[in-house]
Every structure is written in structure tokens, then in C-alpha cells.
Write a structure and sequence with these properties.
Layout lengths: L2 H9 L1 H13 L1 H16 L4 E6 L2 H5 L1 H17 L7 E6 H7 L9 E6 L6 H12 L7 E5 L5 H5 L2 E4 L12 H16 L7 H19 L1 H12 L5 E6 L4 H15 L2 E6 H4 L12 E6 L5 H14 L3 E6 L2 H4 L8 E5 L8 H19 L5
Parallel strand pairs: 1-2, 1-3, 3-4, 4-5, 6-7, 6-8, 8-9, 9-10
């Protein structure tokens, strides 16, 4: 891999995000979001299935959490109301195991892919069309409207990331942003109200600011982890699980080093027993739910077992857990919106991976 190519992609992420935001603030983009909102309401859709592979599948963890949490809360307030559930499939699992002959009239299928032309996506589309699924229920998210997905999808939503030299660098974060707009539309809300637009613009500014001094920030992280890093655990919960899984994929590919991504709950049932003073992990937390459990896990890893953690989070309350602990490096960012915070999380981690790979001579 070439260092400069990956770096160029990372440095141009603010521009890619801004392109996406501007498009969906434009008349054309707003109309697309209004159309899907109206269709979902008028057709009384009960189920939305997101289908993608690799990083697109990981990004869909965020709408899974967002939509299901929203509708769960509404169901508590409005007993007996008809609500929408969200399901996600990795494309190969969908092609192999999904039964396309059940409850089709209530379901929308949204395929997410950067190119729109992969063999797996073609196979998934064929599976639905062969089962006589209403073509209006098959939607697509990609950057190429002239692609196979673009031609087959009834509603097509462009990612607007432009070009990327390394697959997933910009398309992944733009997918997260677009998923946010789609989810709000599915909730029958205004997709981009002024306060949410401001959240996104602040995020883009924070990324630009970080880009200016990424080497200094990254050096602090690499110094904390140490030179003899031969494995790394990414631990998370909620929407930020998307960051853990994407980080695990990228870390293996870029640094050629073993790593594991796990939810906080899964980590505490078995893996916690291997933690010792050589343990290195990144704990990614984007919300303040289950603070007692988070505090207990951090205490167990760092104080009781001597492991080291980077605590990547967006809350002073969470940061306070690790401020006085020498085995914790606290990295606090300012994106409070839990459904777009994973955009900043993965940028911080990708710079870290890039620097580790360069130091080890894996980059040209």
C-alpha cells in the first residue's frame, strides 16, 4: 500500500462529507428524502432491511441501533401502535439464508455498496426479483446511478463521496451520514433540520481541525500503545460497534497485525480472562448508557489486571473515569450525536493504523 494514497483519502474526508450534506440540502436531494419518507408512511412499511458487505455492513449497525431504539421508545409511549423494525444482513448471509417469500408486502430492501456492481449485490437483487418482490420495495445506495444497482433500484440515493484511492476510506463515512438522513426520513421526521445540520457542520470542522495536527495526536496514541504491539482489541457498544468492526478490518489489512472486535458484553464473557499487563485495547464509547457496566469493565482491565486502554469517547462524564489512571489514554472528541460520532471515531483510528504501518515499513 502507498502511504500518500491513504493519507490523501483521509485528508479529503471533510470535502466528501460536505458534498453529501450539500447534495441532500439541495432541492434534488431533499426531494429524494421526502419521496422515501412519503412512500414509507403511505405504504405502511413495517420492516426495513439493510444489506451490504464489509464496511457497508458495519455502517448499517448504526441504523439498526437508531431505528430500533427509536421505535422501541415510541412503542412504550403509544401502546398498540404499528411500528417499523430494522434488520441488517451481510450480503453473503443474505444470499445464502434469507427467505424471500415471507412478509414481502411489509418490507423494504436497501442495498448499500460503493460501486453498485459487485457480484454479490447482483445475486441479491436477482434473488428478490426472482421471488417477485415488488420492484418499488428494492432501493439502492451507491455513488454510481449508472451502475447495476442504480438501474435496478426503484429509489436510488447517491453517497456523493467522489473518488477514493482505497476502497471504504470515504464511502464508509458518507454511508454513515446518509444512513442518518434515511433513518430520520423513515421516522417521518425532517431529514436535516437546522440543528442537525449544525451538528454535522461542527463534525466536519472538527475533522478538518484534527487533520491539521494528526501526526501529533497519533504520536501520543502510538507512544501509549508501545512499540511491541502484536495484537489489539477493539471493544464497544451501541452505534460505535460499527467503528470497532471497521477498525478491526482496517487494522488487519493495513498493519498486518492480529486484532479482534467485540461488544462490551461479549468481551466480559471469556476474553476478559486473558487480560494481563501486555494487553492493549481501544474502548470506543459513543453514549452514556450502562455507565456502571462501562466503569466496571475499565476498572477490571486496567486496575485489576494491568492492561492498557485507549478510551475513545465523546463525553466528559465518560472521560472522567480514566483521567487519573495511568493505564488509560483518554481521547475525548466533541461530536455528541451518537449516530454520526462513529465518523470521527474511525478517522482517529485510521490515522493510528497508517502511522503504525509506516513505522513498521509496510508502506511505500
Amino acid at each position: 500500500m502507498k502511504f500518500d494514497l491513504i493519507l490523501d483519502d483521509l485528508l479529503s474526508i471533510p470535502k466528501a462529507l460536505l458534498n453529501c450534506l450539500r447534495y441532500y440540502l439541495s432541492e434534488d436531494g431533499r426531494n429524494k428524502l421526502e419521496e422515501i419518507k412519503r412512500y414509507i408512511q403511505e405504504s405502511k412499511i413495517k420492516r426495513i432491511i439493510f444489506i451490504g458487505h464489509a464496511y457497508n455492513y458495519f455502517a448499517s449497525i448504526i441504523p439498526l441501533r437508531y431505528l430500533n431504539s427509536h421505535y422501541f421508545s415510541r412503542m412504550e409511549e403509544l401502546q398498540g401502535s404499528t411500528e417499523i423494525t430494522c434488520i441488517i444482513y451481510e450480503i453473503d448471509e443474505f444470499n445464502s439464508y434469507y427467505n424471500p417469500f415471507k412478509n414481502l408486502e411489509e418490507t423494504i430492501f436497501i442495498f448499500i455498496t460503493s460501486s453498485g456492481n459487485s457480484n454479490q449485490i447482483r445475486k441479491g437483487l436477482k434473488k428478490l426479483l426472482d421471488a417477485n418482490v415488488d420492484p418499488q420495495r428494492i432501493w439502492g445506495i451507491s455513488d454510481y446511478e449508472e451502475s447495476y444497482l442504480g438501474m435496478k433500484a426503484h429509489y436510488f440515493l447517491p453517497l456523493k463521496f467522489g473518488t477514493e484511492k482505497i476502497m471504504g476510506t470515504k464511502s464508509y463515512v458518507n454511508a454513515i451520514l446518509l444512513f442518518y438522513f434515511v433513518c430520520r426520513s423513515a421516522m417521518n421526521k425532517e431529514a436535516i433540520p437546522s440543528n442537525r445540520e449544525e451538528d454535522i457542520r461542527r463534525l466536519i470542522f472538527e475533522i478538518k481541525f484534527y487533520n491539521q495536527d494528526w501526526e501529533s495526536h497519533t504520536k501520543n496514541l502510538t507512544d501509549f500503545l508501545g512499540e511491541k504491539l502484536d495484537n489489539l482489541f477493539f471493544i464497544s457498544k451501541g452505534a460505535s460497534l460499527s467503528s470497532a468492526f471497521q477498525a478491526s478490518l482496517n487494522f488487519k489489512a493495513i498493519t498486518q497485525t492480529f486484532c479482534v472486535a467485540l461488544s462490551m458484553g461479549a468481551f466480559q464473557h471469556g476474553p476478559i480472562r486473558i487480560v494481563d499487563e501486555s494487553f492493549r485495547g481501544v474502548l470506543i464509547i459513543g453514549d452514556e448508557t450502562s455507565m456502571k457496566e462501562s466503569t466496571h469493565l475499565i476498572e477490571e482491565i486496567t486496575n485489576k489486571r494491568g492492561g492498557k486502554l485507549i478510551l475513545l469517547n465523546n463525553s466528559r462524564k465518560i472521560s472522567s473515569i480514566g483521567r487519573s489512571n495511568n493505564n488509560i489514554f483518554v481521547f475525548e472528541h466533541t461530536t455528541e450525536n451518537i449516530n454520526i460520532a462513529p465518523i470521527f471515531e474511525i478517522i482517529v483510528l485510521q490515522y493510528l493504523f497508517l502511522q503504525i504501518a509506516k513505522t513498521r515499513g509496510l508502506m511505500r
